[in-house]
């Protein structure tokens, strides 16, 4: 992020860098929770570098390394996506929201907390501090959605108390892919866990299928017609 080009469009990595500075500031007592949430919402809504810069101008910068700019394609070169330092270890949504997506580096343990708010944790383009990552989700009258790479092994251990904790994505993965453990609880709220391919992979898959619309369910050995696979969501988002 730079102040020299205020009109330059901000990337997800730029927004995440600012969010990490804000988290450090609230942890050190430099910001109260209300101001932190206000700045965090502005950071994730920012479209340009000029909108991001004022949010951290009065705060010391962290030295957390940025994630590499170009992640390896999902399903290939998984070994290249393991190692390095995490760029974020948690997310908090109190009457607001948080998002972790794009080429960020996930820690061995990430904790998400939502109270009257919502969070999204997308691992499809992420790098990983280690091959196994635990995503701890605590949703109280709120919701958190975890999106995992289709190739990953997924172990869901969370529970819902007057709420829901989705276990439908649990299952084995491909050799060399990350192992994702999702734990925690939902109280009057919900935690969703879903497998999704990256958009480029979905387009390539459709091209190779030639429009016939048949997919193979790796975990159960069944073929479904018309592009419907109960373990995967192929929407373009």
Features:
alpha/beta, disordered C terminus, 4 helices, 237 residues
Describe it for me?
The protein is an alpha/beta fold. Helices cover 20% and strands 30% of the residues. The chain contains 4 helices and 15 strands. A hairpin with a 6-residue loop joins strand 14 and strand 15 (223-224). The longest helix is centred in the N-terminal third of the chain and has 16 residues, at 12-27. The chain starts with 11 loop residues before the first helix and ends in a 13-residue tail after the last strand. Residues 63-76 and 212-236 have low confidence and may be disordered.
Oligomeric grouping of the chains: single chain
C-alpha geometry: globular
Helical fraction equals 10-25%
User: What are the segments in which pLDDT stays under 50 over at least 5 consecutive residues?
Assistant: 63-76, 212-236
How would you sum up the major sheet?
A: 6 strands, parallel
Provide mean pLDDT, rounded: 78
Strand content: 25-35%
Q: How many beta strands in the DSSP annotation?
A: 15
Order of helices and strands: HHHEEEEEEEEEEEEEHEE
Helical segment count:
4
Summarize the structure.
The chain is of the alpha/beta class. The protein contains four helices and 15 strands.
What's the arrangement of secondary structure elements?
Blueprint: H1 12-27, H2 33-45, H3 49-56, E1 90-94, E2 97-100, E3 105-106, E4 109-115, E5 118-122, E6 127-128, E7 132-140, E8 143-149, E9 153-156, E10 159-161, E11 164-165, E12 179-187, E13 190-196, H4 199-209, E14 215-216, E15 223-224
Parallel strand pairs: 1-4, 2-5, 3-6, 4-7, 5-8, 7-12, 8-13, 9-12, 10-12, 11-13
Antiparallel strand pairs: 14-15
Helix pairs in contact: 1-2, 1-3
């Amino acid at each position: 992020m730079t102040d020299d080009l205020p009109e330059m469009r901000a990337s997800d990595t730029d927004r995440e860098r600012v969010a990490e500075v804000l988290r450090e500031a609230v942890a050190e007592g430099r910001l109260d929770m209300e101001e932190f949430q206000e700045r965090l919402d502005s950071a994730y809504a920012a479209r340009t570098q000029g909108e991001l810069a004022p949010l951290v101008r009065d705060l010391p910068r962290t030295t957390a390394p940025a994630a590499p700019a170009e992640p390896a394609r999902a399903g290939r070169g998984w070994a290249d996506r393991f190692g390095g330092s995490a760029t974020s270890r948690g997310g908090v949504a109190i009457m607001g929201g948080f998002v972790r997506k794009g080429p960020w580096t996930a820690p061995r343990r990430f904790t998400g907390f939502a109270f009257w708010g919502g969070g999204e944790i997308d691992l499809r383009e992420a790098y990983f501090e280690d091959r196994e990552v635990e995503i701890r989700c605590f949703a109280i009258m709120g919701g958190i959605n975890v999106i995992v790479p289709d190739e990953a092994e997924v172990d869901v251990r969370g529970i819902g108390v007057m709420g829901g904790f989705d276990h439908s994505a649990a299952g084995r993965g491909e050799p060399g892919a990350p192992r994702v453990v999702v734990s925690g609880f939902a109280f009057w709220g919900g935690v969703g866990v879903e497998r999704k391919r990256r958009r480029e992979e979905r387009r390539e898959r459709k091209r190779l299928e030639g429009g016939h619309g048949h997919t193979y369910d790796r975990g159960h050995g069944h073929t479904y017609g018309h592009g419907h696979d109960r373990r995967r969501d192929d929407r373009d988002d």
